[in-house]
Design a protein that fits this description.
This protein has helices at about 1-10, 20-70, 85-90, 90-110. It has about 120 residues and is mainly alpha-helical. Helix 2 runs antiparallel to helix 4 (about 90-110).
Length: about 120
């Protein structure tokens, strides 16, 4: 097998370009790489900032919702109320907190532009 490849490698004579041109191309590529790294770092900082904002918003709204549900208890349902209604009334604070957490996560996703394709 090595004998089959030997003529191929023997006939290969790459052209060596100008050293200055190579250095210039390398510098342009390095500058582009630095710019891309800077943009990625900036996006990470923005993401962290919006994540903290979304977390704080969710925590505040969750605390307000929990306080509201504790201060305004539901009246007892009629004795003939369905079992599902009783369970939903008992789970109301958890459902409100889940809705607030979902809205907070959606806010973070939309604010950071996580769904966009990089340009």
């Amino acid at each position: 097998m090595n004998d089959d490849l030997k003529p191929l490698f023997d006939s290969y004579r790459p052209e060596l370009g100008d050293a200055d041109e190579y250095t210039e191309r390398l510098q342009r590529k390095m500058e582009a790489l630095r710019w891309m790294k800077q943009q990625a770092d900036e996006q990470r900082r923005l993401f962290r900032r919006w994540l903290v904002v979304a977390f704080a918003t969710g925590a505040v709204l969750g605390a307000v919702a929990l306080a509201y549900t504790l201060m305004h208890p539901l009246p007892h349902p009629a004795p003939d109320a369905s079992r599902l209604l009783l369970v939903l009334q008992q789970l109301r604070p958890a459902l409100v907190a889940l809705a607030v957490a979902g809205l907070s996560a959606l806010t973070a996703h939309l604010a950071t532009g996580s769904g966009r394709v990089a340009e």
